[in-house]
Target: Voltage-dependent T-type calcium channel subunit alpha-1H
Amino acid sequence: MMIKVVAMGLYFGEGVYLQSSWNVLDGVLVFVSLVDILVSIASTGGNRILGMLRVLRLLRTLRPLRVISRAPGLKLVVETLITSLRPIGNIVLICCAFFIVFGILGVQ
Model:
């Protein structure tokens, strides 16, 4: 990540690192991993507040998405899946409303 930031630039200019959403995801994963390492080092004394930050380990499950950014076909599939989540959510809400209505009618 640091080599790409140095080569491309961080924020200003054309073709910078933060212009691509895949690079932003990669940066977030690196940042979460660094925070997790720091929390695990600092929580050896038994500090409970820092122990709660271990929830950040769940975000490390997104690491395989870094590989997807290098495969153009797989990248297209994942982007299509992400854009289709909103319409699928609307359909799920409508189905839940029908289940509730017919559930109430069934109980009656």
Notes: The radius of gyration is 21 Å.
